[in-house]
């Protein structure tokens, strides 16, 4: 057992509600029928409320007409249900903590929003999958913070003072990285294999390292890396903007073929959607 596995074993993290785990399993099973899924969601009232809220949102044009979970599932589709469940479960992991956790949460929301926009731009990817991957990409930081809070707060201080990213300093402090821990953790949560892989590899050293991945997963991994870089530059989840930090966003943009003009538009769309998305959690 290596250090990353040990930290995972020793740390206490709020368990993902059983309902969420069940729903994820059902959503991933092509034989699941709507009534079974609806019955499972109803077992968690907070989750049921959120599903109804999303189904009745302006995005689906239902304007308050959806009042059963079955109708909500039909309206939004299995992928959206999966996204809602993962978002709710992840939010649970971050709550009851202080300012640092709030920053980590903000960063997750930011990367999730940016990944959704980038997935739509790139094409060939599910923006729902990208949103979920963005939301969970740094879950390893939560594990590290929960298991060794003093060490993690020392790391955070270094990161803030030196205007760098966690990935640039964590290995000296912990001996391993949050991507590795996140990969192990998400496997423990029984997340889909592809998602675990993207979480584990989102700080890839070079693009060539991803060549053994399936093309869609490789693209998703690149999207997450770019979404992460976009947020880091803007300071989303960090102390402030870091416009001059050395990151690999140019390389990711080249691979994804996103030119300067499009990227500037993506940046603008992101700023707008990020504020909306953040406030949607704060109000409900
Ligand atoms: Fe990360
Ligand atoms: Fe990140």
Write the layout of secondary structure elements.
Blueprint: H1 3-10, H2 18-27, H3 34-42, H4 45-55, H5 69-76, H6 78-94, H7 99-122, H8 127-136, H9 139-147, H10 149-162, H11 170-174, H12 178-188, H13 193-201, H14 215-234, H15 249-256, H16 260-283
Helix pairs in contact: 1-12, 2-3, 2-6, 3-5, 4-5, 4-6, 6-8, 7-8, 7-14, 7-16, 9-10, 9-12, 12-13, 13-14, 14-15
Describe this structure in words.
- The chain starts with a helix and ends with a helix.
- With 284 residues, the protein is mostly helical.
- The mean pLDDT is 86.
- The chain folds into two domains: 96 residues, Hypothetical protein af1432 (Orthogonal Bundle), CATH 1.10.3210; 187 residues, Hypothetical protein af1432, CATH 1.10.3210.
- Helix 2 packs antiparallel against helix 3.
- The longest helix has 24 residues.
- It is globular, with a radius of gyration of 18 Å.
- Bound molecules: fe (ii) ion (2 copies).
- The site of one fe (ii) ion has 5 residues, from helix 7.
């Amino acid at each position: 057992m290596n250090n990353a596995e040990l930290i995972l074993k020793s740390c206490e993290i709020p368990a993902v509600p059983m309902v969420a785990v069940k729903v994820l399993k059902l959503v991933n099973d092509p034989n699941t029928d709507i009534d079974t899924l609806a019955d499972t969601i109803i077992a968690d009232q907070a989750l049921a409320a959120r599903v109804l809220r999303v189904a009745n949102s302006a995005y689906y044009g239902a304007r308050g007409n959806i009042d059963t979970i079955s109708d909500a599932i039909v309206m939004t589709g299995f992928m959206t249900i999966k996204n809602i469940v993962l978002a709710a479960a992840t939010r649970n992991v971050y709550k009851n903590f202080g300012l640092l956790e709030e920053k980590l949460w903000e960063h997750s929301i930011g990367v999730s929003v940016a990944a959704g926009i980038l997935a739509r731009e790139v094409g060939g990817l599910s923006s729902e999958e990208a949103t979920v991957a963005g939301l969970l990409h740094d879950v390893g930081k939560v594990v590290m913070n929960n298991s060794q809070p003093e060490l993690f707060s020392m790391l955070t201080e270094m990161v803030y003072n030196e205007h760098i990213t966690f990935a640039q300093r964590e290995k000296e402090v912990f001996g391993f990285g949050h991507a590795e821990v996140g990969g192990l953790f998400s496997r423990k949560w029984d997340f889909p294999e592809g998602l675990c892989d993207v979480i584990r590899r989102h700080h890839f050293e070079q693009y060539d390292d991803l060549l053994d991945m399936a093309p869609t997963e490789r693209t998703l991994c690149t999207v997450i890396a770019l979404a992460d870089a976009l947020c880091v530059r803007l300071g989303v989840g960090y102390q402030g903007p870091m416009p001059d930090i050395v990151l690999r966003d140019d390389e990711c943009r080249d691979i994804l073929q996103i030119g300067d003009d499009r990227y500037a538009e993506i940046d603008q769309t992101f700023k707008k959607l990020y504020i909306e998305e953040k406030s949607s959690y704060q109000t409900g």
